[in-house]
Amino acid sequence: MGRKEHWSCVILIVITLKQNRTSGYTAEKLMRMFNISHSTLYRWAKYFRDIFPNSSLWKALRGNVRSDVYNNSLPGSLLQFFINKYVFEHIGLIKCLKFLASDALFSF
Asked: What confidence score (pLDDT) does residue 107 get?
């Protein structure tokens, strides 16, 4: 994977783990694990909370997933949708990233 794809994957995983804190992934733990700052984590979370759900990209893609992928739980519910479709979780992650593949998605 290239640099951009690597960071897309990290962003998707970090924000999903932050949303699903049941596994003990606090903001501090995620910042240490991925060597990112609080402002970076906040910016990524804000993007998926406020910007992406209202984007033309998401509006164009929205009809291709089940209705239980909620805007207020992106990207976690979208990633879970893809993971549930495939036997192996890493395949679901790859399919989710391909689904979201766009020059505009992670350019924030």
From this structure: 45
